[in-house]
Amino acid sequence: MRVEREIVLPVGPAEAWETLTEASHLQAWFANDVELDVRPGGTGVFRWDDGDVRHAVVEVVEEPDRLVLRWDDDGLVELELHDHPEGTRVLVRETAPEWGLALELRAQLAWTLA
Amino acid sequence: MDARVDAVFEALADPSRRYLVERLASLGESTPTELARELPMTRQAVSKHLDQLEEVGLARGSREGRQTVYHADLRPLRHAADWLERVGGQWDGRLAALCRHVEQRTELERE
């Protein structure tokens, strides 16, 4: 099961890649505080002001076409950049973690919050 | 409960199984014999579909005397819908912010 979205950014692929991979840019749109080591095997930490924190590992880096991150709950985020007459088309795909695992994490979270 | 999301949707791709889940949910519980009366299908065929639904967590069977009574379990669907709504909503918000961010930068550069 996956969610797919796409948008066209009015900039070239190099600039689009920067906004999708550099912490200073990611902090403007993805999360409030971002650390990301953009190398295969590099780690990422995304923090939101509501207290939410998510950890990720970089799986694929193909500058300036494709970036794949794996969340620590096993969900996957793929970002693809394509040329577009008006700039760069960005395709986002997030794939759900395995069902059983997701339920387990939910149960753990409920336990932690209780 | 351990069924994967894909398997849940695959189970529901079949119209007979969709009908069976819906009927079980409306009736609260039923048996293959009762359900077979409503469908152009044998009791054995209904049982086979119910087994498949049970495998992906959409139905639960319990032995009562000589027959198995089935209940619908819609939790796998609820989790799937929750996930799609939550993650889809997150990306809608993030991509809108990304667009604003890129537009602001482009304007600053022009000035």
Helical residues, percent of chain B = 55-70%
Total count of helical runs of at least 4 residues of chain A: 3
**CATH architecture annotation of chain A:** 2-Layer Sandwich
Number of strands of chain A: 7
Q: What is the class of the largest domain in chain B in the CATH system?
A: Mainly Alpha
Tally of individual domains of chain A: 1
Strand order of the largest sheet of chain B: 1-2
Query: Which oligomeric form is depicted?
Result: heterodimer
Q: What's the order of the H and E elements of chain B? A: HHHHEEH
Assess the beta-strand content of chain B as a share of residues.
5-15%
Number of DSSP-assigned strands of chain B: 2
Question: Over all CA atoms, what is the radius of gyration of chain A?
Answer: 15 Å
Based on CA atoms alone, the radius of gyration of chain B comes out at 22 Å
CATH topology of the largest domain in chain B: Arc Repressor Mutant, subunit A
Relevant CATH superfamily of chain A: START domain
Q: In whole angstroms, how far apart are the ends of chain B?
A: 57 Å
What's the CATH architecture of the largest domain in chain B?
A: Orthogonal Bundle
Shape of chain A: globular
The helix count of chain B comes to 5
Structure report:
Helix content of chain A is 27%, strand content 45%. In chain A, α1 packs across α2. Chain A is built from three helices and seven strands; from the N terminus they run βααββββββα. Chain A is of the alpha+beta class and 114 residues long. In chain A, β4 and β5 form a beta hairpin. In chain A, strands 1-7-6-5-4-3-2 form a seven-stranded antiparallel sheet. Chain A has a single domain, classed as START domain (Alpha-D-Glucose-1,6-Bisphosphate, Chain A, domain 4, 2-Layer Sandwich), CATH 3.30.530. Chain B has 111 residues and is mainly alpha-helical. Chain B has two domains: 69 residues, Winged helix-like DNA-binding domain superfamily/Winged helix DNA-binding domain (Arc Repressor Mutant, subunit A, Orthogonal Bundle); 37 residues. Chain B has five helices and two strands. Chain B has a two-stranded antiparallel sheet. In chain B, β1 and β2 form a beta hairpin. In chain B, α2 crosses α4 and α3 crosses α4. The N and C termini of chain B lie far apart (57 Å). Classes of the chains: A alpha+beta (114), B mainly alpha (111). The interface between A and B is medium-sized, with 24 and 28 residues.
